[in-house]
Amino acid sequence: MHGAENPKRSARPFFSSNIAKWLLHLTAFVVFQILFLLTDGSRFWNILNLNKAGEKVVAFLHPFFNQFLIYSSEHLNYVTAVWGVVVVVDGIFKFVMWLKSQRADHAR
What we know:
The chain crosses the membrane at residues 20-38, 78-99. Keywords: Membrane, Transmembrane, Transmembrane helix. The chain is mainly alpha-helical and 108 residues long. The chain has one domain (7-107). The protein has three helices and no strands. Helix 1 (7-39) packs antiparallel against helix 3 (74-107). The protein is elongated.
């Protein structure tokens, strides 16, 4: 019975691997949020000064993130908003991939 796999066995490693990667991503996000909270208002974040292209992107995104003001530093607010969206999209993507692997396993 080498050809027949147990669907629960083949889906579990895929799920745990992707969940572990997403949890690592989420943990990095949370750690940086704590770092941002501790250093908000510091001159250190001036390293995030933008070039002209970056300033154009910020001007374009400003209306979307105008209500998203956690930190006194505008740079940190943008980093948090963009990274937060990336974490959520990454989690959704990994979940959808897991669902597809589940369906493929059940179709066998």
